[in-house]
Amino acid sequence: MPAFSAKSFFTPLPEIRSLENDRIVRELQDMRQENARSGNERSDALNYSSEKEEERFAALKLFTFDPNTIDDEGWLSLGLSKRTVKTIRNYQSKGGKFRKPDDIKRVYGIAPSLAEKLLPYVSIAANDKFEKNKYDSGSFVFKKFDKPARETKRIAPASIEINAADSLEWLALDGIGPALTHRILKFRQKLGGFYTITQVAEVYGLPDSTFQLIKPILKCIPEGINKVSINSATETELEQHPYIRKKLAKVLIAYRTQHGPFRNISDLGKIQLIDSDLLAKLVPYISVE
Q1: Domain-by-domain residue ranges, the chain?
Q2: Of 15-24, 26-35, 153-162, 169-178, which range is least confident?
Q3: DSSP 8-class letter at 205
Q4: pLDDT over 90 for what percent of the chain?
Q5: Do domains 160-219 and 228-287 have the same CATH topology?
Q6: Alpha helix locations (H) across the chain?
Q7: What span, in angstroms and rounded, lies between the C-alpha atoms of 69 and 75?
Q8: In angstroms, rounded to a whole number, what is the distance separating the alpha carbons of residues 49 and 127?
Q9: Which fold has domain 160-219?
Q10: What would the pLDDT profile of 37-96 be if each residue is shown by its tens digit?
């Protein structure tokens, strides 16, 4: 019987190790190649996303704005997402303010490329020179701010007639930006003209605090109001009026079809959808001719 040889017993192991090492090396090489491909794909995707973003930003219609007073619709029209606008509102609800144009670069959610496009249009009202700041120690210090950005000051008119005022006159009022100006003029046009100052408060998105601020200088001359003939207007024409809308327009047409022409304005009171408050609002805008 041949003698036991430890050397001969373990001889295959180096070959096994070599094969195993080769396999591991191949797997590592495959992983590197796969990672390289994935990296290229990610890079292509990022480049594509960046190109699409640039196209979207290039299509924006930019306008001068104050980031401390612009409304949500204004931010959205400047290219911000609803989520980013919410971030800004949360910041402002805690007392945060934009001190200088460059501060918009610090807003999480505003892409650097968009921030650069917006910067030339930022116009911030003058800040107080000093602000009180409280630290954990309970002590108070005064911090001097950077010099505020230069801006063209608004010169508010002594009064404006709300049926004749153009966009520039509305824009001159505190708290009224481009978006609100557009809504005010559109609401006035759809109504057919204002017959009372309080109707301005009905404009969508106009804060009551802003309305109360500008109310003392608003004047209303209810002349030349465009009226709608409820006996000849089509359903489409009726539903365009802010106080009528689609549902009431259908009812008015049905009533007219069933009972014939309205003989006087008070006939509207026979319609269930029209209460005394709505009737009072409709009277200046309705005719039975």
Answers
A1: 14-58, 72-144, 160-219, 228-287
A2: 15-24
A3: T
A4: 39
A5: yes
A6: 6-10, 13-58, 72-77, 82-93, 112-118, 167-171, 178-191, 208-214, 235-239, 245-259, 276-282
A7: 10
A8: 38
A9: DNA polymerase; domain 1 (1.10.150)
A10: 555 544 444 444 455 555 666 677 788 889 999 998 889 888 888 989 988 988 888 778
Q: How far is CA 279 from CA 39, 246, 252, 255, in A?
A: 67, 17, 13, 16
Query: 8 pLDDT exceeds 90?
Result: no
Report residue 164 CA to chain centroid gap.
28
148's tokens: 């505020």
SS3 content of the chain, % helix, strand, coil (to 5): 55, 5, 40
Least reliable range by pLDDT among 89-103, 146-160, 174-188, 192-206: 146-160
Task: Assign domain 228-287 to its CATH architecture.
Answer: Orthogonal Bundle (1.10)
pTM of the model: 0.49
